[in-house]
């Protein structure tokens, strides 16, 4: 019998023991209540006190014994049932069986669930399973296997003063996204923009409740108020999107030519017009609805903002913590670039690109990857994964795997360079580096995201020296607050010094 099956049996044995323990506690509670009620009943019928206590002790001991016997009879049945369930599912990858209804949910630290999944992968191998609630999750920590798997279509899937860079970053990156999506930018104090930002941040917090309700459906009753608020937030955001879409519609002249700014909304409306010219009744024409466009815009904005802003936040923290690297990057910029850095300078600044990659390896924006679901039973390296399972491409474990990286715990941007020693360096592609995932549903914003990060950091480094305030120098890079979906650092402040040399 394979080792992991034996260990599953052992585990299910432990779970049966816990079952007996829980059963006994329930018995004791039930008995205490039962005895109290029985004694109260007899007392009201006028029975003498001494008799009452003797009878109470007798009844409770007898009932306790009876219940223990029932428990002892049930435990092997439960064990047999769980063993059969396990054997029936033997084609699944190894992993803990978990408790009924909640699975392994209570073993997970909500601050850093990726740590729990990494430990599972270390114990059970590169493909393993875990039940969260009653949902089956398959954790995959091998980029090669993910590449094969996701190629299939069966998945959906201030100088001197310390300041926080959070708001300026949200504003800058948010407006870069607004520009490509809507062809417009919002001033920082625009109330509509502020309201959308608030709704989005609130929505990210409420996402946790939506995720929990997906795992244990009855929780949706408890979180109903918050989930309604979440849905209301989406509705309000879409009404602002609709306002902008209506503005873009006015950018068409009477001949149907578009004269507005180049953006996603404009392109969508043009495609809609072309489809309607061909056949107004076709399914394609109907698919270009305003509702579809609102969801599309929301998806692009939502997927682009936190991933990019958090990556830049981590990069700035590493620049603060590695002053020598910061100075080297600045020297590189000073000797190679003009006064404003554009994408044309990208190939000159390979050190900066390698630095960004190494930060993304150490602190992946989405440490648990973006899960995909199986739409039918699929074969995964000899395991049979049923329809409806969730595949977790666990970047956190891949990025810290000694088989893929030389001393993965060390921050070393040079690992992304072809030749660290020579002055002319080139980026070295690494097949195990998959921050944007792989396959058909790979991130559509990869290039744009990397360009935004590069442009922001290069121009920032050219103008400022950045450091943590003296009293915050013990900042711990390994603390992760409120994990929802993206990995963001504990809020921090920085001191900026303008570069004058
Ligand atoms: C550092 C920046 C970013 C990282 C690390 C990142 C990472 C990812 C990952 C891991 C996925 C899941 C792919 C899959 O399901 O296999 C994804 C999907 C996606 N990303 Fe990004 N992303 C980044 C920036 C962006 C930006 C800037 C945009 C928009 C302009 C964007 C738009 C999207 C969209 C729309 C999807 C869903 C694609 C689909 O399901 O077909 N991302 N991203």
From TrEMBL:
Its cofactor is heme. The keyword Cytoplasm does not apply. It comes from the Eukaryota. Heme binds at residue 443. The keyword Nuclease does not apply. Keywords: Heme, Iron, Membrane, Metal-binding, Monooxygenase, Oxidoreductase, Transmembrane, Transmembrane helix. PANTHER family: STEROID 17-ALPHA-HYDROXYLASE/17,20 LYASE, STEROID 17-ALPHA-HYDROXYLASE_17,20 LYASE. Belongs to the cytochrome P450 family. This is Cytochrome P450. It comes from Tigriopus californicus (Marine copepod).
């Amino acid at each position: 019998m394979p080792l992991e099956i034996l260990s599953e049996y052992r585990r299910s044995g432990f779970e049966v023991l816990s079952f007996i323990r829980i059963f006994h506690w329930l018995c004791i509670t039930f008995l205490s209540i039962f005895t109290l009620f029985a004694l109260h009943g007899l007392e009201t019928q006028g029975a003498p006190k001494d008799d009452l206590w003797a009878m109470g002790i007798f009844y409770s001991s007898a009932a306790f014994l009876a219940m223990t016997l029932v428990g002892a009879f049930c435990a092997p049945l439960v064990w047999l049932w769980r063993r059969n369930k396990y054997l029936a599912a033997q084609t699944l990858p190894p992993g803990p069986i978990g408790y009924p209804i909640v699975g392994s949910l209570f073993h997970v630290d909500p601050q850093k669930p990726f740590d729990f999944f990494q430990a599972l992968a270390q114990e059970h191998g590169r493909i393993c399973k875990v039940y969260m609630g009653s949902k089956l999750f398959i954790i995959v920590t091998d980029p090669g296997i993910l590449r094969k798997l996701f190629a299939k279509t069966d998945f959906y899937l201030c100088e001197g003063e310390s300041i926080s860079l959070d708001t300026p970053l949200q504003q800058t990156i948010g407006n870069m996204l607004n520009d490509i999506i809507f062809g417009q930018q919002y001033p920082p104090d625009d109330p509509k923009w502020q309201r959308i930002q608030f709704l989005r941040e609130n929505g990210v917090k409420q996402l946790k409740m939506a995720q929990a309700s997906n795992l244990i459906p009855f929780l949706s009753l408890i979180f109903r108020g918050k989930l309604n608020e979440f849905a209301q937030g989406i509705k309000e955001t879409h009404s602002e999107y609709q306002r902008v879409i209506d503005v873009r519609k006015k950018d068409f002249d009477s001949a149907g030519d578009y004269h507005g700014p180049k953006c996603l909304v404009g392109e969508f409306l043009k495609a809609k017009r072309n489809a309607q010219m061909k056949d107004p009744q076709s399914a394609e024409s109907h698919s270009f609805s305003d509702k579809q466009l609102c969801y599309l815009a929301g998806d692009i904005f939502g997927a682009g903002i936190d991933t990019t802003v958090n990556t830049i936040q981590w990069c700035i923290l590493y620049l603060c913590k590695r002053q020598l690297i910061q100075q080297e990057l600045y020297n590189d910029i000073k000797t190679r670039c003009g006064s404003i850095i554009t994408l044309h300078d990208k190939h000159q600044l390979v050190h900066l690109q390698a630095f960004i990659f190494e930060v993304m390896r150490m602190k992946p924006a989405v440490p648990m990857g973006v899960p995909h679901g199986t739409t039918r039973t699929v074969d995964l390296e000899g395991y049979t994964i049923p329809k409806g399972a969730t595949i977790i491409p666990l970047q956190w474990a891949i990025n810290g795997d000694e088989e893929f990286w030389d001393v993965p715990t060390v921050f070393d941007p040079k690992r992304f360079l072809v030749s660290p020693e020579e002055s002319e360096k080139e980026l070295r592609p690494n097949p195990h580096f998959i921050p944007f995932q792989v396959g058909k549903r790979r991130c559509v914003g990869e290039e744009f995201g990397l360009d935004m990060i590069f442009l922001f950091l290069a121009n920032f480094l050219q103008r400022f020296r950045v450091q943590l305030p003296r009293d915050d120098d013990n900042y711990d890079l390994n603390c992760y607050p409120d994990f929802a979906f993206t990995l963001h650092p504990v809020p921090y402040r920085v001191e900026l010094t303008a570069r004058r040399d």
